[in-house]
Amino acid sequence: MQGKQNVPSILLVEDNPVDLDLILLAFKKGNFVNPVQIARDGEEALSWIARWDAGEARPAVMLLDLRLPKISGLEVLRGFKEHPVYNTVPVVVLTSSAEDGDIQKAYQLGANSYIVKPVELAEFISVAQQVELYWLMLNKRTLESTEDFPDNLGREARR
After folding, report:
1. pTM for this model (two decimals)
2. Which of 40, 99, 132, 147 is the most buried (most CB within 10 A)?
């Protein structure tokens, strides 16, 4: 059985405490084994770059809210996608905005996916399971993005 340190993490960038609790509850109800790194504003999200440079394991995927204090989610997205090393970390925008302008701008800046936050817990659990299935189990990453964890992606920890 693999240790938790070998399971890819999720970077969750969310400032709303209710939404944060709902997302974490959805992960718990979905029996996720993946550790969740949390940033509560745009500045904190961008500070993860320095933490990864210092040797902390980078995540398999980032879930990014657009409406953030200090630095907007779109600026966070731009910062990650323009970074020469961490631009390969997939970014899934998970936000309450269904505005065409936000969707278009997010994709222009390099978002890998755009999901409007569900309201009901059951829908959140479904979205969380789909994120896990695709981004943490099925999606293939570059060699550089997988150096922090093995290819089994924590599946053995679930057995």
Report:
1. 0.81
2. 132
